[in-house]
Amino acid sequence: MQETKATRSMFLVRALERILSDKELKRSHNSPLRKACQATLEDIQDDLKAFEPHGGHANSPHTIVEADRYFYAFEMACKSKSPGVVGIALDSLQKMIAYGILVGNAPDSAQPGKRLIDRVIDTICHCFNGVLTDDNVQLQIIKVLLTAVTSNKCEIHEGTILQAVRTCYNIYLASRSPINQTTAKATLSQMLNVIFTRMESQAQADSELIEKIEQEIDEDSEKIRDDADQNHVADEGSVASADGVYAHKQDKEFEHEQHHDRPVAESDMNGKGDEPAVDKQKENVALENEGTKLEDRNIQDHEHKTSNGVAVEDEEDSEEMVREIIDDMVSHIVETSSKENGVQRTESVTSQASTSSRQRLEQQLLSSQSFSHVLQKDAFLVFRSLCKLSMKPLSEGPPDPRSHELRSKILSLQLLLSILESSGLVFRTNEMFINAIKQYLCVALSKNGVSNVPEVFELSLAIFSKLLENFKTHLKMQIQVFFKEIFLNILETNSSSFDHKWMVLQTLAKICEDAQIVVDIYVNYDCDINAANIFEQLVNVLSKISHQNIPGSNLTPGQEILMQTKSLECLVSILTCMVDWSKDLYIDPHSMSHLGKEHNPEGGTPTVPLSVASSSSNINGSMQSVHSEDSSLDQSFQTADNPETIEGIKQQKSILERGIQMFNIKPKKGVAFLQDQGMIGTTAADIAEFLSGEERLNPGQVGDFLGENEALNKEVMYEYVDRLNFTGTEFVPALRLFLQGFRLPGEAQKIDRMMEKFASRYCDCNPKGSVFASADTAYVLAYSIIMLTTDLHSSQVKRKIKVEDYIRMNRGINDSKDLPPEYLTDIYEQIKRQEITLKPTISQTVKGSKALSAAQKKQEMNNIADTAKALMEAVSHVQSSFISTKHHDHVRPMFQLSWRSMLVAFSMGLQDSEDTDTIRLCLKGMRCAIRISCIFGLMLERDTYVQALSRFSLLQANAGIREMKAKNIETIKTLINVAYTDGNYLQESWHEILQCISQLELLQLIGSKVRDQAATMKAVRSAGNADSNQILTRTLGLENKKLASIQESMGETSSQSVVVAVDRIFTGSTRLDGDAIVDFVRWLSKISLDELSNQQHPRMFCLQKIVEISYYNMGRIRMQWSRIWAILGDYFNAVGCNDEESIAFFAVDSLRQLSMKFLEKGELPGFSFQKDFLRPFEHIMKHHTSPQIQDMVVRCIAQMVSSQAHNIKSGWKNIFAVFTLAAAHRDETIVELAFHTTSTVVTDTFNLYFQSIIYCFQDAISALREFSCCAFPDTSMEAIRLIRQCADYVSKRPDLFEKYFGEDTTNLSGSGQPEGDNVWVRGWFPILFELSIIISRCKLDVRTRGLTVMFEIMKTHGDSFKSDWWNDLFQIIFRIFDQMKVPELQLEKSDWFATTCNHALFAVCDVFTQFYETLAPTLLNDVYEQLLWCVGKENEQLARSGVNCLENLVLSNGTKFNKDTWKMTCDTFQTIFKMVSADKLLTWKPGQDEVAELQTLHLRCILTAEMIECIDRVLFYPTSTKKDDEYNVHIAQNPSAAIESERRHDHEMFDKLNENHLFMMVRCLLVTHDFAKRFNGDNEQRTILWKAGFKGKSKPNLVRQERTSLACTLRILFRMKDRQDNAERVDALLYSVCLNALSYFSSLATETHRDEWTPVLLLLLVRILRLEDKPFITLTRKLHTPLCDLLLFEVKPEVRLLLRRYFLRCNVASLPVEQS
User: Which residues are catalytic, by number?
Assistant: First the structure.
């Protein structure tokens, strides 16, 4: 310690000796200084001697007091007039401060309340005496002040530190030495850096300490809750522990940093250090003095009135200071804890402290100020002073770079910029600094923001950029003013110079690079109803600058180009920010995993809302708030950032702006619109509030609206005026206030009403103390004031009114009295000084485009500055919430708002400019715009930008061939890049892109000179009439030289980069998502079809690419691939049917290769991908007419079957469909190839993979059916054999059909099949149905073979058929007999009926008989119905077949019939008789269609005869009747032969029928008989029919019908008589029939007719003779006479012989004869 004291003393001694050694000290005026130095040396020596006993140390109070005594000599040296002495003294002070020898914490004995260091700094600063100060002294002053400010050994605060900064500032301004100026400027920067860095460090240390203490308190609180009984003790221990830790830490810091973190003294907290508001401190800071006032020291006295507290004098004072620090910190903890944890936490903390501590905390809470530490106050004072310095106006005239005013302004702005650039958390968040920025800095910037000094203007813009970057949340209104009034005005007005515009654009370019700022501007201004549309206006202005020349701006072309480029750069930056802001929503297709998986952004992280911290410009992203209020504020911001709410506000604002626009055109319409939209109320008060509060309304329209004479308008005007408060306001100011909201209308009546209301309102607001006797006085005076304004300030009035004239003019207006002359004089003077200006209309405020003079430009710029300053001052105290945006969704409305303006800018740039940078910016902007529109699904915007790129690429189909420029090549590359990077979002835009790529390939062909010039011209001419190659149409008139030039430029499109980029689009298609690949394929297919549609010059570029991408994307999941192939299938359908065989060949071959590759993957049961994939083969085979293409399709299918049969599942359906189509071909080669493959499948593949083919079993049968009907008999027969073989497969493997689950199948009637019927629906039914088709379609030999196989299958496998199956089967069978199914061109129709039909009918009978028990219950009625249908057809053969089928069916199965069945059968017979009745023969007359009608009647006669025979054969068996007739003749010819009883056949059905059934048959026969008799007896009608050609050349008759029907009737009745069934009825009917028959015979006129009746007579006589005696007698008694009458005619001998036998028997019986 002694050594330290000696060292310090030696240092002081040497410093003093240096001063004494100076020769200036020998002068007499320096004698006091010399004596002081000598005395000081002596004191030092005495002090050294006295040091040892005291045992003190350097920092003891004794040493500090000595320091005060030692400084006196240096103080006097500094006041010396000798520069050398002053320099030595300053140098010594610098070293003393630097080494800690001079700390200055001791009180200043000369100035109570001050510290020594304050006097030290004041002494040093007084060494500077303006421009006359020695340069070395200036340098030493700078040096020692820098040391004092930056030293950690001593502390200077408030006025002292401000004085130090002021001195360096003044040295910079006053010094003539460039070195000193540079040093002073650097020193100021370093001082400010130290001042603000210390403030931030102190706040950070306090924050950490608070956090630590709070954590300890929380831990202790947990312990308190665990042990409630020891609550008080535990709390005290916790606080004591916290105090001890804090005090120990602070002691170490004070020892190390020499009181660096000393807090504000208690006197400051009570109001001395920081007056209630900084604004109230009116210190006259010396920093604000420039020029000749640099020596002014007024600021010094004022600043030093603020006490810095008393220095620490002993250990107790030091401990007390530490205790105050702890108390101060605890007060902050209590405040924070109360906000976070409520009152309970506060009570818990305060209960732990002692009573004195609690009182001190309460006092500090009550007296807390805005500054938490003196360091904050230091920084504030310096910052405020610099702001005020920057506001100082410059002198009039051109600025002088060497003037103090300009240099001071520049320096202050530079220092302010450095403060903002290095600002920390405290500066950015403390309310005092924020208020200072609002009230001082922003106002200063508003004035300097239009300065004509480039450096000042540039610094102002830089400062604003920093404010926008770091303080935007606090400066919402100020930012709006700066943008709207300065930035946009400078860019739009012609008054601003190029430098102004250029620097603004540069600043905007920096601002637009920050995504956070860009989005915040949109959300906080464009989406705020009360704010200007900053973002929209900015984009519009930039767009306007980028493509329009500014008339009257006096800019050179080079300057205009620079501005246009810079504005484009700003627009691109804005779009880039949008892209960056929404980048988490973008999915890069080339960073995803492979196909078929969910596509997540790279890294697999889920999309989360964009954090504010993601932006580098966000001030809250990398720091934490010290106070809890800040965190709660951030939470409120986060809550407010609701995209839906904000977008709703934006929509309301748009509606409001539209309504305002409508109002400015037609006020009533605008008000009605806003009321309809709910933006304003319906009452007059609501409308008045809107008119008075909305500044965007046209003042002229507002005045017109208020002045209208309608009731609503007047009510609104009254409400509007009543909202104004004129209380205590002079008349002229009141009139000014009244007229500031609108412009008076031009109509006198409107003005009268408005002035009348104004006068009334003014008098109401000022009922007392007014000079007006009534409102009329105010009304007249208001008019006179307006007239006075016009008279005094109108340039058109030459003779101005004088005050005396004005007083005279207003005589008697105050209720016939005069107003006081002094009152009117005052009004006159007010108006003379300042006219009452009516608010200009919007049209008057629009900036003109005409050239302005220099004076006009200057005046306009001053007006801009004044307006900006006034607005900035007006909003300096306005608090407005600022939303710090986080969400991605804001980008969508931003882009929707700006895309049109940007599109215009980029399009014009691409069109008009050849500059590389401009082209690059435009293309980048378009690319970003496309990216944004893609991300948010904005289809219109996306398509528009893509179309713009397409247009500038010169690759549109109708663009024609033109010389490619570099910008066109770059546009092509950009378009290709868009396709590669944004393919997932392009959707409909793929059309434009792929069309351009297609045209690009054509240009590459031209450019690469693949064709020679002649070929090129030929292609051009051939394409001249084709729409798909319009790109060539405009080259028809090109000269060879120009064509060569174009070819050379086209060659650039074939560069390696372009070719590779195009290929990447197609190879990268595997990375597109499911929807994107579908869009891509759809449009590529369409473009390809357009390429191929050119008949003369088709191209296959896109066709090749489709094949490629099909290979590339084959690995996609089936769901995606099915959607792709839904498009490609139709595409290959169209291409495969192309008339150009080369194209069709290529398509089919490509399809084959793709199919082979696809089939290799196999397919699971139940899917149908293969069917969809192979369908184009079927379509091409069906629709293409070229045999070569069809042959190739068949060969492709055959190859697939040969190599991939084991993998084919659902594809069999298409394969068989192709074979079906091939079977109908006329080319035997194609048919044989297809049948050979089909035969192989049926013979071999069925055995191996029948389970796979079972799905398409029906298709296989259909194919075999077509082969059976082909034109080649051998193939037909073999195909039928294969069908028979397929039936064996079904019979052997029915289980497979039951297990099969495929497409829903339905039976013939359309209803769903029950379980277990799959084998029928999918097996038997197709076979039998296709066979029926073969029977109906093919020639005789084939159909006969088919019919044989069909019924053979039925007979062989019918025992396994269910009844429902038989129902369906018989429906198939019945189709054979449908005449409508017979081909119209069938040449052998009669043979078909004679062979196939009969064959089928008998086969049906055989099948029905074989399976009668199964079929009868359900099918017999259907069979009868079908037979009726056959009989009803007007075809003889078909009808006869139906009758024969009915006969055979009954004969075969009649023994199995029951009663109901016979009833049904007899009803059928009866129905047929009715159907075939030919009653019309009796009434027929010649007329239209007589031939067809006669044919029908003839057919009915034939069928009637067939039915008579049918009944006879059914009842008596077919051969019985003939034998019976032969027997009758035999009996007649042999009189001696005995008449035997009737011979009955074992299979006859007579006995199966009951009497009712028999009577029904008899009735049918008798009806037929009667009709025949009537017809035969109508000779006239027969003659008519004969002449008409009915039944041949002879006259028609129905003799056979009448004979056979009667014979059958007699047989039935005689048989019934023998059975004794209902004997009386039978006898009566028999008698009647016999009597009628004999009578009719007697009436016959011709012998021929009688001869025809011979069999009937023989039958009658034999049956009578065969009767027993009793019935014989009974019957003959009634018939004897008619029988005798037979002898009257020439009858046959046989009849005569039988009559003889009759009479003989009658004689034997000896019966009396009954008289007739």
Answer: 747
